[in-house]
Design a protein that fits this description.
The chain is mainly α. Helices cover 81% and strands 0% of the residues.
């Protein structure tokens, strides 16, 4: 396992640090602007890029690139929602996403406002739909940025820290322990499990808010 994992990590690290950082930032921009996050999660991009971080400068540079990329993409998503929201929703892609998910994003935003923008960064599906949805809402762009910026920073710091720590631990142990690869995998799995648990808690809270909204509007199942 060490040989396979070492080869993969060496390949990522062999890419020029500046190019690698820029690619991660661009990937995040597309992930948050044109719904690519529904196919290739930004979580994967951040973790893979972070495994090659070797210096504090590279760490800070990657965090900045991910944050700037995410904010740029979300700003594009916001603009697309402002100008083409209904068209995107009625397009083939919009129909494939599903009326349920669009309605869910709209209700969540209507009830929670800025909090929905912040929390959505950590929720599957919603983090790709919320920028577009906000663009169709009365929320101002500066208000949107005020809520999404700290969420993007927190998200980037968490993923880059874990990816760099996992790869760093592996490289320190690889020459001494034949099971060093399992240490790397264990760190990633534990983090993934923690992220999954947090997302499930957030999703359940969001679903409770949705039910409360429906009941309050007289649209619940008993209405």
């Amino acid at each position: 396992m060490n040989d396979v994992l070492g080869g993969l990590l060496d390949f990522v690290q062999s890419i020029d640090p500046l190019l690698r950082t820029l690619l991660a930032g661009v990937a995040m921009m597309f992930e948050t602007s044109v719904l690519l996050g529904l196919v290739v999660p930004g979580d994967t991009v951040a973790i893979v890029a972070a495994t090659a971080v070797a210096t504090p400068v590279e760490f800070v540079g990657l965090v900045i690139a991910l944050v700037v990329g995410a904010l740029t993409g979300e700003s594009v998503g916001f603009a697309l929602g402002r100008w083409f929201g209904p068209r995107i929703r009625s397009s083939a892609l919009g129909r494939r996403i599903g009326v349920h998910n669009w309605d869910r994003a709209e209700r969540y935003l209507a009830r929670r406002g800025g909090v929905a923008v912040f929390v959505s960064r950590f929720l599957p599906v919603l983090h790709s739909l919320i920028p577009l949805t906000v663009g169709t809402s009365p929320m101002r762009y500066r208000t949107f940025l005020a809520w999404t910026t700290p969420a993007c920073i927190l998200w980037a710091l968490a993923y880059v820290s874990v990816g760099a720590a996992a790869a760093g631990s592996y490289r320190e142990l690889a020459d001494r322990l034949h099971y060093a690869g399992y240490v790397f995998v264990a760190i990633i799995v534990i983090f993934a499990a923690a992220v999954f648990a947090v997302k499930k808690v957030l999703q359940k809270r969001e679903e409770r808010h949705m039910r409360a909204t429906l009941d309050g509007d007289g649209e619940g199942p008993d209405a």
